[in-house]
């Protein structure tokens, strides 16, 4: 074939009918990488849950850092295995330039990583999220269990409809201040403890939802405490203030723990994304190494044969 510009005869290009992509090795490498990922995640879950002993002192930050490091290790090892298998099992290309062979091995390693990532994200994503989430919940529970437990009733975002209705009904039937002062309950007199407890619970719920308790509610709650305990009004009011301070402290601890968990999750997600990018590179390099070893073994066999 004569080149129209140079006038030099060039050999006619021969186009092969076979595709340069071998899906068999790619699928094999992807399945190997996915399976290895699950195995390593189970190992990491066991190690992480062992670290988070109820009597230990590991913080959520320590746990998040160790989890992120383990996710990077899992990604790199599984990517290397999948890329190497894809490159090693790929059929050697004949009558192709060496650079093209390297490129095809690189592409097969990358495609094996991509398919494995899709498999893990779609088929195994929920299972792995549960595995990682179990350890994260354990860490969060150690830091904020006491706080969230104490504030679970009082720090609700909004009271229920029953709480609101009961609160307003209680407001209607509260005795007047002068009547309460004129006829204070006698110590040890029989009282409706269940009704008193229900009123106090609703007062606390509404006060927590509003962010603060009104002076009238605080004074009435102190009278309820005084009627139940026999304490003087001043001491009952002090007890109410102490309980409110403890509730506020529990709410702040719960918010702090939630903020730490959010930051740890964001950091883990960013590190995970970076590890995926590096994992793709490792898979591509492993594909080249697998292809090179394939060619070297074949050349050695031909020489010895």
Question: What does this entry look like structurally?
Answer:
- The longest helix is centred in the last third of the chain and has 72 residues.
- It is built from 9 helices and no strands.
- The chain is rod-shaped.
- It has 305 residues and is mainly alpha-helical.
Summarize the structure.
The protein is mainly alpha-helical. It has helices at residues 23-51, 60-89, 98-122, 125-151, 161-172, 177-182, 193-210, 215-229, 233-304.
Notable characteristics:
single chain; 305 residues; mainly alpha; 9 helices
Total strand count, please?
0
pLDDT < 50 runs, ≥5 residues:
50-57, 138-158, 178-190
Number of helices, where a helix is a run of at least 4 consecutive DSSP H or I residues: 9
Order of helices and strands: HHHHHHHHH
Overall 3D shape: rod-shaped
Question: What's the layout of helices and strands?
Answer:
Layout: H1 23-51, H2 60-89, H3 98-122, H4 125-151, H5 161-172, H6 177-182, H7 193-210, H8 215-229, H9 233-304
Helix pairs in contact: 1-2, 1-3, 1-4, 2-3, 2-4, 2-9, 3-9, 4-9, 5-7, 7-8, 8-9
């Amino acid at each position: 074939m004569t080149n129209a510009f140079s006038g030099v005869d060039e050999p006619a290009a021969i186009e092969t009918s076979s595709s340069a992509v071998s899906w068999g090795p790619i699928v094999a490498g992807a399945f190997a990488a996915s399976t290895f990922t699950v195995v390593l995640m189970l190992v990491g879950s066991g190690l992480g849950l062992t670290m988070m002993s109820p009597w230990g002192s590991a913080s959520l930050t320590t746990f998040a850092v160790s989890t992120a490091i383990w996710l990077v290790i899992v990604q790199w090892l599984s990517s290397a295995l999948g890329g190497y298998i894809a490159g090693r099992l790929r059929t050697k290309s004949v009558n192709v330039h060496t650079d093209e062979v390297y490129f095809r091995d690189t592409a097969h390693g990358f495609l094996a990583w991509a398919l494995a990532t899709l498999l893990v994200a779609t088929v195994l994503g929920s299972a792995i999220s549960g595995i990682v989430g179990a350890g994260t919940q354990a860490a969060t529970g150690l830091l904020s269990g006491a706080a969230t437990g104490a504030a679970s009733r009082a720090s609700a975002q909004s009271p229920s409809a029953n709480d609101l209705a009961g609160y307003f009904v209680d407001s209607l039937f509260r005795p007047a201040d002068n009547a309460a002062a004129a006829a204070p309950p006698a110590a040890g007199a029989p009282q409706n403890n269940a009704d008193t407890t229900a009123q106090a619970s609703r007062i606390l719920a509404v006060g927590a939802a509003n962010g603060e308790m009104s002076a009238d509610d605080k004074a009435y709650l102190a009278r309820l405490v005084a009627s139940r305990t026999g304490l003087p009004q001043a001491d009952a009011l002090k007890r109410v203030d102490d309980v409110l301070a403890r509730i506020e402290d529990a709410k702040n601890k719960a918010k702090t723990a939630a903020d730490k968990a959010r930051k740890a999750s964001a950091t883990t997600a960013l590190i995970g994304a970076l590890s995926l990018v590096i994992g793709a590179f490792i898979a591509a390099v492993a594909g080249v190494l697998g292809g090179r070893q394939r060619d070297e073994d074949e050349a050695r066999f031909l020489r010895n044969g």
